[in-house]
Amino acid sequence: MNARGETPLSRYVQILETVAAARTGLTLTEIGQQLDLRAPTVHRLAGSLKAIDLLAQIEGSKSYVLGRRLQLLLHSTLSLTDYSHLAKVILRELVDELGETVHLARLNGAVAESVLMVQPEGSNRAFVQPGRELPLHAAASGKAMLAFQSADFVDRYLAKPRARFTENTKVGKDEIRAELERVRTSGIAVCDNELDAGVLSYGHPVRVKGGYVLYSIGVTGLADRFRATPTEVVRAKLSHAAALLSKEFGSVE
Predict the structure, then answer these.
(1) pLDDT tens across 146-174, in order?
(2) CATH assignment of 78-248, given 3.30.470.20, 3.30.565.10, 3.50.50.60, 3.30.450.40?
(3) Is 24 exposed, middle or buried (0-12, 13-18, 19+ CB in 10 A)?
(4) What digits encode the pLDDT tens for the residues 20-30?
């Protein structure tokens, strides 16, 4: 403990608190100035935090933001009540526009967890009720998140066995990697009879502060009916809703 009564751990926490309070991130120089720390100390502490993914450097910038690991921890503490407050209005608007069930999913370990669902008035088909765990390789909302995780994350996921839910489910490593590349290129994921027979779903990534994809927004309906809606219309509306959600979750992207 130094003369100011600080422990090494408290300095790490102070850096995280300082960076968290800055919407667009802080450089090491700015962190040092705000905390009255010498440059070598800031470099050492920030380097240690970055090494365990609690802090991250914005690509192409000298600024630091909270790391993916810490963002996951923060968002895992949100309750269904928090999600309802943040997202229900946005999801309801999308339901009114598309006439299909819309849900918000959160990355939870190696699955996509449905955390909020809004259905059209009078609907009784709950495809993605809150609490349902959706496979990252088969569900549209899962693909929309898996496609934007790190290469190491994808490798670890593909190293484990994957269930086949219908004859259309992609389970091979090469075909899943090709599918993820299509998602990154098009910006939208599609699940056509791959998880639930007769069901068509679309998913779009939702970024949080730091640009991490920890959520996705999905829309699901009976394939025979939903297929009549042009994919480009769905893509545009999901993209707009995802941008609004990203702002709600503090993204600066």
Answers:
(1) 999 989 899 999 999 999 999 999 999 99
(2) 3.30.450.40
(3) exposed
(4) 878 678 899 99
